[in-house]
Amino acid sequence: MKILTVEDIEKDLKVNKETVYRFIKQGDLPAFKVGGKWRVLQEDYEKFIIRTFRPTGADKLQETVQRAVDVVATKRTAKLVVIVLGLGVLLFLSITALALGGPTNLWGYAFLILFGSSLYVFVTKRKDILR
């Protein structure tokens, strides 16, 4: 059984002596006096550290949920960017084709219809992307 001084705790926690005294006075850190100076049992100090500074189960759960939400949001955003870029390309090709006098042959129309319909099928089949 090891006994710690206020100075030991101060150095370990990298806080002022007043902070350690406050923990003792509030009853958070069990302590006793020897020769007018406060002493703390190491096992009481270790319990205090665990109780005070380590995250609780609720904190860990909240942190895990937040990370999961961030990952889902990132994936959803990436998929949405792909869809928007695809629609942008389709719009650009359509405008370019119309600006040049429209598709001059059947293959031009076929390309626009095929590209647009494949993008439409991709988006509608993957409704989960936008959820």
Helix content: over 70%
- Approximately what portion of the residues adopt beta-strand conformation? 5-15%
For the CA atoms, what is the radius of gyration? 33 Å
Provide the low-confidence segments as ranges.
none
Number of domains: 2
> What is the number of beta strands?
3
Q: What's the rounded overall pLDDT mean?
A: 74
User: H/E series, N to C?
Assistant: EHHEEHHH
Describe the biggest sheet?
3 strands, antiparallel
Number of helices: 5
3D architecture notes:
The chain folds into two domains: 51 residues, Arc Repressor Mutant, subunit A (Orthogonal Bundle), CATH 1.10.10; 74 residues. The chain has a three-stranded antiparallel beta sheet. A hairpin with a 2-residue loop joins strand 2 and strand 3. With 131 residues, the chain is mainly alpha-helical. The longest helix has 43 residues. The model has no long low-confidence stretch (mean pLDDT 74).
What is the topological layout?
Elements lengths: L2 E3 H8 L3 H10 L5 E3 L2 E5 H12 L3 H43 L6 H20 L6
Antiparallel strand pairs: 1-3, 2-3
Helix pairs in contact: 1-2, 4-5
